Amino acid sequence: MSGGARRRLRIAVLGPVRAWRDGAPLDLGPVRRQAVLVALLLRAGTQTGPEQLLDGVWGANPPGSGRRVLPSYIYQLRKALDAEGAGPAESVIRSDRGGYRFADDAAQLDVAELAELGGAAQRAKEAGDLAAAMDRCSEALALFRGEPLAGVPGSFAQGERGRLTQRRRMLQHDRLDCLVLLGRSAEALDDLAAVVAADPYDESLMALRMRALYGSGHQAEALNAYQEMRERLRDELGVDPGAELRRVHQAVLRRDDQRLLGPAARPAAPAAASPAAPPARPRRPVNELPGDTGHLAGRERELALLTAPLADAAVSVVAVDGPAGVGKSALAVRAAWRLRDRYPDGCLFADLRAHSTEQRGIAPQRILRRLLRSVGAAESEVPDDLDELVAAWRAASSPLRLLVVLDDVLSAQQVRPLLPAGPGSAVIVAGRRRLAGLDADRRVSLEPLAAGDAVSLLRHVLGEERADREPEATQELVRLCDGLPLALRIAGARLQNRPAWTLAYLVERMAGDERRLGELSAGDRSVEAAFRLSYEQLAPMQQRGFRALGLSPTVEFDPLTPAAVLECPPLDAEWILESLVDASLLQQPRPGRYRLHDLVRVHARRLADAAPGEAGAARTAVLRLYLDAARIASDWGPDAFLTGPRPAAAPFPDWKDADGWLDAAGGELVDVVAHAAALGEADYACWIAEALSDYFARRGRYHECRTALEIALAHAEEAGDRRMPSALRTCMGVNDLYQGRHQEGHAWFTEALDLARHRADRGEEARALAGLGAADLYAGRVEQAMTRIADAVEQAQRSDDSWLVAMGLCLLGSVHQGNGRNEEALACFATSVTRAEKIGRPRMISRSLACAADLHHGLGQYGEARSFYRQAADLAERAGDVLLHAVLLTRLGSAELGEGNLSAAADLHHQALSQHRTLSPLTEPHFARLEMDIRYRLGRTYSAAGRIAEAREQFHTALAVPGAGEHPMERSQALAGLEECGAD
Length: 984
Fold this sequence. Notes:
single chain; alpha/beta; six-stranded parallel sheet; four-stranded mixed sheet; 61% helix; globular
């Protein structure tokens, strides 16, 4: 899309949100969709992640579908806004690294015009062209068409609405001020009466009204207005008028035309000099900024935020934070150099040295003295007392427009005394900590560079030719440096000083965490030293928490991990985590989840290893947390695990909490098993893998299940628990059965049975027998299956293994049902339900009920089948088992068809199809088979209702499912359905 085509799109937000392309209005849809547009539009050019969008638009009440709702909103917005024929790369909304951004040159925005006109008004006023300034203010105010973002919901829109409303007030104030200064006070009075009535506590507006009244010849009315304001503030807010309003009052009393009406006013007698007159303005602007050196890679978005226009009527503060070595100082200095022309009275720089190795922190008195000297105060005029210094600095800076850069700041308390007082001045604060106590207009948090930007920096340091000779080593070096600019520069410096070294050689030297940080040191610069200074600023409990995080087996974690290590309540652990986020030692990728950058994690692990007594207990506590969660979440129930520690004081009230906690860990659960194995904790590796096998199977995550079990099996012979070699093989067999790999499962169960009998382990023998029986049953060896399953159930009943009894009786009942022994089958299913209810896991109960329902349905007892299916479907939904829920819904539909309830049957089959669509064909081996079954049942329902064409469509669709030929039974059913419907 060309730039001209983009500019034909215009979007207005200074009122109800509207859009036009080539002058024709566009339909932006419902207000929630407009809220998503606004959240992207007002961050134009900046990537916005899904969590940011959900939080800014839905807040505390996100949609049930979570981030999956966003693509549909983005699709509709692109459809409405994009030019005809625009592809994804030309869309006004770009997909970018997992998030979205509105292309910064894609549309004309009224807010951009507003900023441009506001800036022009300010420049004209500073140049003394009051008429032009007033005209620009009037043009800017004309852009407003009512309340900004009218009717748009969400916290982001609310915040922007407040900001734009405040901008409107400032423009009104500046326009009216220009009228007064031009000697047209009477014209300003009507508008002033309206705005003061709308905000009766705004002292700046009242001061302006008093000046306008005085300029119109109404001195007494101006004094009465002050008295009314004073009484209102005292009676309703309990405060006195501020300094500015008091000064205007005194000027009205003294008839100080010069102060009240500006330079154009008639001359007045000079007022007595104030005893506390500020130092004179320096004769020429001062620039104390450090040199803008070095290559700044990948910081375009952050630099744009730092250099974007700020409010002109007040002192603006921009805070930059980030971990050690991420490039905060370089970014702040680069931004200051770009901004320097906006600050005619100078640019000041102060390094507070909060993390200096040579001089830890500088007293504020010393910084203030230097700042005062920089703006022209004589040494004799600079006091010693801190309060007097602060007062002198504010007096000296009040008539000035300055840019002040404060680097390496530790706390908000350090910053507050150093803030200048001149309207329109700005302060850039850079430091490792997030200064929550500082009132900042804008905050920028720096993260390590993305891979491409990190490569760009390394190529700049080394030279493109040398870096490009070893592209793979360059990428690996960037990964080992974790994208941290300091690490990349140190690595580059080492290679510069050693021309004989290849990049691959340095990568080899950095292999292993124990050597990685040691190699990132050059001269007086060291990554580990930078991290250590951040660590040393922490309180003792925070330091211990940081060390604990180095022992986490996963990259991401929540408060339960440090809580387990520190043996403290989760709320206390969360406080520690949040304090580490504020110290820029920890990331928070989403609410409640935290992570360490790679190099920071290496440093934390080295600190933990330096305290071996503390580390050993901590590692066990973390592994125990994952083991307890996996066993509590398992459908087997914690009592079904015959060896290993029982979850006694686990922080999970029930299986649902444990299940949700494991869900939050995502794809890192296999890493926990690998971590335990690497530590030599073979028992924990095996126990965790065994317990997770059920969790993985329920989620259809069969590959992860196999990987975890393979890792554990490689260490099973090292485990003290001799049950593990057999138990893990049984788990492998179950995983194969879930995927329809019956022959492979049979082999695993055979090995497990041999090992269990060799050890005379009756519990594991029973489980291996049950698995063999299931494999035989699926292979059609019914008699052999019945013998093995019956033996397994008998042994399980003797050992009171409720999970195995429930599972085995379901299998045994299925054998009886296949042999026509329905009463025996029903008895098995009834006992299975009782045993499953004893465990209390809804999925187990659901499976047992489903077996009974299938039997009743096969006997034509549709009412009984419907009752069992409904109970089973509700339990499967409660358990979150999408596959089982879809199966039960479609079978319930068939029961409704048997009862003659055709409409209810069709609805249930459609619900089953909706559930099926949420499954992945890549991970769910029964995906195609289930779709064929549902469509066959739906086709039969349509056929019974006389809707023959729709029935044929379902049968044809079933036959067209990819891989349909691999499911002969379902294919035969669909073909039979077509035959019953007659020829097309």
